[in-house]
Amino acid sequence: MEEALGYKFRQPELLRLALTHPSVTHEAGGAEDNQRLEFLGDAVLQLCLTRELYDRFPDADEGTLTKGRARLVNQTSLAERAIQLNLGEHLLMSRGEEANGGRQRPSILADAYESVIGAIFLDGGPDHACAAILRLFDPLLDNLNQLPKVENPKGALQELLQANSIEAPRYEVISASGPDHDRDFECAVWHGNKELARGVGKSKKAAEVAAATAALEALRTKQ
Asked: What CA–CA distance (Å, rounded) separates 144 from 132?
């Protein structure tokens, strides 16, 4: 795992914790899992890639930068990075979770990738964490060329989905954090019973737009 990450842990127990799925806690009561590291890694990813976009696109406004970040930081993208690392093979999980396909489930892979980034941050600091992030994200950043300029991502997503289905996408606020004057909202967009993507914003509307942008990117990549 360290070889794939390009990083040698001084505290190997942090990497082990990052790879410990919550199902282990449920199976062996009292065991620690990777959820706290996932929380930390999510913030590190957001900051590192936000800074990279800020530096690469000096003429882009806040809204455009937010759309660009949504193309990078979403469940599909993070799961793909985890697959590049063969991270699923190294996860510690219950037998039941493994039997249910946990090692290949995108949500579990994305969460574990965030946890590993959180572990690198604690072990080596922000510079090592960002280096590990950019090692895998640089090709995506290079392929951006220019940031997306979809004026109405929610409308574009609905049009794309309703080309093959009468059902419209629906949006769900997953979480809200921070003080009243500076809230951060996380929103998921669903179509049928499938979650397409997630987005984060300073308002519910902004989070929905970010989720729609991420979903558009994921769907177009598959086409």
From this structure: 19
